[in-house]
Amino acid sequence: AQSVAQPEDQVNVAEGNPLTVKCTYSVSGNPYLFWYVQYPNRGLQFLLKYITGDNLVKGSYGFEAEFNKSQTSFHLKKPSALVSDSALYFCAVRDMSKGRRALTFGSGTRLQVQP
Amino acid sequence: NAGVTQTPKFQVLKTGQSMTLQCAQDMNHNSMYWYRQDPGMGLRLIYYSASEGTTDKGEVPNGYNVSRLNKREFSLRLESAAPSQTSVYFCASSDGTSSNQPQHFGDGTRLSIL
Fold it and tell me: Is the distance from CB of B36 to CB of B60 less than 8 angstroms?
């Protein structure tokens, strides 16, 4: 069965510093990978996706993610964190070998950016 | 642009009561989904509808039923609410013609079962 792991419940970073939010996955077949962000009392918002091609994917709000097939990882990164980036971040995978369009989500990582 | 609209935003029920959560999207998407979000568990799929007229069970379907009323609307029903169904419920939609398209989420329904 497909699964997604986000090993850190919370990540703390100072404003202006680079940030990384970790994600590893397990699927049979080629993975379609996504990152979403959730602000308080709101639904999830799409940040970026990896389908195929370049291992470095650029997305919204200056975020990017690096796909590493050998390590089965898809870490979210940003060169310079903003206080407004503080939110809950979810990694998700769609396992196309099963033909299902729904997503399997990780448990989420809370990002706290300190001024 | 409304996107995905969920009603109600909040609801408190007593054990054994029934309720229907409503979801509508205005993006002409084929696929729609219901998830529940519980602390520390991410989002778990309850039911989904790949296209109008079809529905399928997800990871946690027990205690729920769904109806894909038309292309726009996908409702979730709790026939006899239980405290374990206290959660935040999210509806989402995506363009089902291409499986790599992201899902668009509503702002959720916060449901408490006493």
Answer: yes
Note which residues in 65-104 of chain B have CB less than 8 A from chain A.
90, 92, 94, 96, 99-100, 102-104
User: Which of B75, B4, B84, B33 lies closest to A43, judged by CA?
Assistant: B4
Contact B102 A43 (CB under 8 A): no
pLDDT in tens, B42-94: 899 999 998 888 898 888 999 999 999 899 999 999 999 999 999 999 999 99
Residue type, B65: N
**Pick from B108, B99, B97, B55: which is nearest to A52 by CA?**
B99
Candidates B43, B48, B96; nearest CB to A105: B43
For residues A63 and A65, what is the distance between their CA atoms, to the nearest angstrom? 7
Kindly tell me the burial class for residue B105, based on how many C-beta atoms sit within 10 Å of its own C-beta (0-12, 13-18, 19 or more): buried
Q: How far is CA A54 from the centre of its chain?
A: 16
